[in-house]
Amino acid sequence: MEQRHDLGAAFARLTRVMIEAETPVLRAHGVEMWDYAVLGALEEGAAPTQSELAAAVGRDKTRLIPILDRLEARGLLGRTPDPADRRNRVVALTEEGRAVVRSCRAGIREVEAEMLAAVDPGERAVFVSVLERLADAAR
């Protein structure tokens, strides 16, 4: 029988290492990991509701509110009443928020390049492609 890491254990280990490596990049921009997750989710477009945004990033709505408050106070996103339902808030990135996401992502890509530097370029491309497909399928 083939001996290898269980996928869950391997992903968990890599996730811990990547989060640890990315944290200084995010900290340099004054954002936390959950802040970046929220900003990144909004990069594709405004979230019609805070509940939908919470589901998209995998964060409980009650824990999302303080993140949104913090990001809005910094001018990185805005919450406006939904014209169709004034009880609802539409959440969208500001231009400053877009700039922060782009800058964070550029720094994270540098961290990723360092992490994958020892991997053959062909294998690296396949690894990233397969990982992207698995992440998309898990949504």
TrEMBL record:
Residue intervals of the HTH marR-type domain: 4-136
Keyword Transit peptide part of the UniProt annotation: no
Keywords: DNA-binding
Transmembrane segments: none
Keyword DNA-binding among record annotations: yes
Single GO molecular function: DNA binding
Signal peptide boundaries: none
Taxonomic superkingdom: Bacteria
Name of the protein in question: Winged helix DNA-binding protein
Organism: Pseudonocardia xinjiangensis
